Amino acid sequence: MGLFDFVKGIGKKNTAAPEPQAAPTTPQATPVEPSAQEVANKLLGHVKSLGLPITGLSVSYNGASDLATVKGQVQSQADREKIILAVGNIDHVAKVDDQLTVSSPEPESKFYTVKSGDNLSKISKEFYGDANQYNKIFEANRPLLKNADDIFPGQVLRIPA
């Protein structure tokens, strides 16, 4: 458990379906930032959509500090880390307060922040000395990654031992 830092504003846009809203009666000059509760609801929906096993999941968001707090219980360290990354790699989030508990504690993975020009083979070469071990990193980040080319600068990835 602890506090994890992310780069705010470069994460994926949260693709959870927005709540239907009534059409505005007057045009708005600037886009309205979502409320903290709306962000929290979208983060919760995003984590649930990944299908990771978690009991008692709750997500809160503080817009003033861009802090998302995640609570619940998971079976494995890998699921814990995937949930933290799923929340932290969203554009409104700068920090994730991990309050998840793990039923079967295991050693933590390393985290790596993707740089411009990186690909999974290059990251694999850096951590394992073998570019062909990229699939280990890809599998460790599923379902967050849909394919091996689905990474972007600033994204944080799990690097298993």
TrEMBL record:
Region (Disordered): 12-34
Signal peptide positions on this chain: none
Subcellular localization, as worded in the UniProt entry: Cytoplasm
Pfam families found in the cross-reference section: BON, LysM
CDD domains assigned to the protein according to its UniProt record, in alphabetical order: LysM
Lyase recorded as keyword: no
Residues forming coiled coils: none
Domain of life: Bacteria
Record keywords: Cytoplasm
Composition-biased stretches (Low complexity): 15-31
GO cellular component: a single term: cytoplasm
SMART domains assigned to the protein according to its UniProt record, in alphabetical order: LysM
Domain LysM: 110-159
PANTHER family the UniProt entry points to: POTASSIUM BINDING PROTEIN KBP
NCBIfam families: PRK11198.1
UniProt-recorded name of the protein: Potassium binding protein Kbp
